[in-house]
Amino acid sequence: MEEFRYLGKNLTNQSSIHKEIKSTLKSRNGCYHSVQNFLSSSLLSKNLKIKLYRTVILPVVLYGFESWSLTLTEAHRLRVFENRVLRCIFGPKRNEVTGEWGKLHNEELNGLYCSPNIIRMIKSTKIRWAVHVARMGEGRGVYTVLVRKTAGKNHLENPDVDGRIIFRSSS
């Protein structure tokens, strides 16, 4: 099979996560549109809207991100989505000189939203997980997969005496 869906994720025989990001885009847009009225409401405070974004929308957007290897294109798409949500939360700005309303620029959004952006969140979580695995030590399988380089074309050596597959370090 070239691709199939497993546990809510699209798995392909390619190393690209483009289809997975595209699928996530659909689900996050649905989530965003379901709460868009709340985010643009003038009755709710900006702090409450930000909490709504962090607790309802971000988990949908970031589901399964641990397995993503983000390209610049995917990272840009995620930032565009986040900026769109933040523009809805903070609303338009008014030019004091002309009195005209306009949208907030990215730099202004970064100043208003004091939390780390979505890309920094993804990177810091991945680093925290890698440090956790590094502390596990060489005896753990996760450490072996993350740190060691495997030898051979199939990346697997012959089964051990009791039938287990052994990963060998190439260094």
Treating each run of at least 4 consecutive H or I residues as one helix, how many helices? 6
Structural class of the helix and strand makeup?
Answer: mainly alpha
Distance between the termini: 34 Å
The overall average pLDDT, rounded, is: 76
* String of helices and strands: EEHHHEEHHH
Question: Looking across the biggest beta sheet, what order are the strands in?
Answer: 1-2
How can the largest sheet be summarized?
2 strands, antiparallel
The percent range for helix content is 40-55%
Shape: elongated
Percent of residues in β-strands: 5-15%
Poorly predicted parts:
155-171
Number of strands: 4
Specify Rg, calculated over alpha carbons: 22 Å
Q: What does this molecule look like?
A:
With 171 residues, the protein is mostly helical. It has a domain at 3-116. 53% of the residues lie in helices and 7% in strands. It has helices at 18-39, 46-61, 72-90, 106-112, 118-136, 141-147, and strands spanning 3-6, 9-12, 93-94, 101-102. The longest helix is centred in the first third of the chain and has 22 residues, at 18-39. The radius of gyration is 22 Å and the shape is elongated. The two termini are 34 Å apart. Mean pLDDT is 76; it is low at 155-171.
